[in-house]
């Protein structure tokens, strides 16, 4: 009888761990893989889906939302409607990372509502920002990262706060 109880506990423990691992695949682990607020925007160079050159200068204005999304991340796909419907003076800059055949749906969904850049894994923008976790959503003012998080809601809340003098 004791072995039966022990065996049941062992099986249940393994099941809980398996479920936890599956759930964690869809949740960001922490903000540790994101740039720190106060960090200047690094230099980078890319081309948008419409052929426009994109560089550090795109993030040097008064305020811009910058998002990096992967095609393999459910939370990244969840950010698309908010980015598409964002009412901001400047379109967000959105980098979509993944194989070309998987990026098409996100690109179509965002359309002309964002300045879009497509990258394979470890493209020039991903490398420049050293992003380790996705989604990565940043609020940038005058070339400096003000807020970094895993969702648009936190960035929008941060955008309500006036810029601080450095």
Write up this protein:
36% of the residues lie in helices and 21% in strands. It is of the alpha/beta class and 166 residues long. The strands form 2 sheets. The chain has a 5-stranded mixed β-sheet. Strands 1-2 form a two-stranded antiparallel sheet. Helix 3 links the parallel strand 4 and strand 5 (115-119).
Tally of individual helices? 5
Gross geometry: globular
What is the helical fraction, as a range of percent? 25-40%
Q: In terms of per-residue confidence, which ranges show pLDDT below 50 for 5 or more consecutive residues?
A: 23-31
Strand order of the largest sheet: 5-4-3-6-7
Please count the beta strands (DSSP E, at least 2 residues each). 7
Tell me the structural class: alpha/beta
Helix-strand sequence:
HEEEHEHEHEEH
Largest sheet: 5 strands, mixed
In short:
This protein has 5 helices and 7 strands.
Which helices and strands occur, and which strands form pairs?
Blueprint: H1 2-24, E1 45-47, E2 53-55, E3 64-70, H2 74-84, E4 93-97, H3 100-110, E5 115-119, H4 124-129, E6 136-141, E7 144-149, H5 152-159
Parallel strand pairs: 3-4, 4-5
Antiparallel strand pairs: 1-2, 3-6, 6-7
């Amino acid at each position: 009888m004791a072995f039966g109880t022990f065996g049941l506990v062992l099986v249940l423990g393994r099941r809980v761990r398996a479920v936890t691992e599956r759930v964690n695949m869809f949740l960001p682990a922490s903000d540790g893989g994101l740039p720190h607020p106060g960090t200047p925007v690094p230099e980078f160079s890319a081309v948008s889906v419409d052929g426009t050159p994109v560089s550090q200068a795109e993030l040097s204005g008064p305020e811009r939302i910058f998002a990096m999304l992967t095609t393999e991340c459910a939370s990244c796909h969840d950010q698309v409607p908010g980015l598409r419907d964002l009412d901001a003076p400047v379109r967000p800059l959105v980098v979509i990372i993944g194989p070309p055949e998987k990026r098409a749906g996100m690109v179509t969904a965002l359309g002309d509502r964002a300045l879009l850049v497509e990258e394979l894994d470890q493209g020039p923008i991903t490398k420049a920002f050293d992003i380790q976790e996705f989604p990565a959503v940043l609020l940038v003012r005058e070339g400096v990262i003000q807020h970094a998080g895993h969702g648009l809601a936190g960035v929008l809340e941060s955008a309500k706060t006036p810029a601080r003098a450095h």
